[in-house]
Structures are given as structure tokens and as C-alpha cells.
Amino acid sequence: MSRLWQSVVSGWTWLVLVLCLVLWLPLMLGVLLLTGPFDRGRYIVGYLFRQVARVTVTLNPFWR
Questions:
Q1: What is the per-residue pLDDT across 7-26, written as a single tens digit (0 to 9) for each?
Q2: 3-state percent breakdown (helix, strand, coil) of the chain, nearest 5
Q3: Contact between 46 and 24 (Cβ < 8 Å)
Q4: Most buried among 23, 34, 53, 56, by the most CB within 10 A?
């Protein structure tokens, strides 16, 4: 794989990850505020956080 292609793939990977996190964090904050009183272990928010990885891998064709 050429150096230029590696840079493009790396840039795409970081872009997808950052966009997923930027879009996901407000959702996680909303869920945290709604479930905070009865979800002391933050399991629901933790589950949503782990889903960011699944979405990132799905959106990145180079990781399949």
C-alpha cells in the first residue's frame, strides 16, 4: 500500500471516528440525564458508548 493511500485511509478512519463521537455524545448525555436516577452503574450509557465502536467499524470499509 502506498504512503499516500495509507494517509487517505488513516484520515478517513479518524474522520469517521470523530464524527461518530461528536454525534454520539449528545445522545449519551441525554440518556445519562434520563436514566441517571435509576441506573447508578451507568450501564445504559456504557452500552451506548460501546456501540460507537460498532458504528465506526461499520462505516469504515477498510476494517472489514
A1: 998 898 899 999 999 999 99
A2: 85, 0, 15
A3: no
A4: 56
pTM (predicted TM-score): 0.73
Report how far residue 36's alpha carbon sits from residue 45's, in angstroms, rounded to the nearest whole number: 9
Q: What are phi and psi of 41, to 5 degrees?
A: -80, -5
Residue type, 63: W
Amino acid at 19: L
Question: In this predicted structure, what is the pLDDT of residue 60?
Answer: 83
CA angle 29, 22, 49 (to 5 degrees): 55
- Single out the residue of 30, 28, 22, 58 nearest to residue 46, CA to CA: 28
Sign of CA dihedral 23, 27, 28, 33: positive
* Three cell numbers written together for 61: 470499509
Q: How long a stretch of residues is the chain?
A: 64
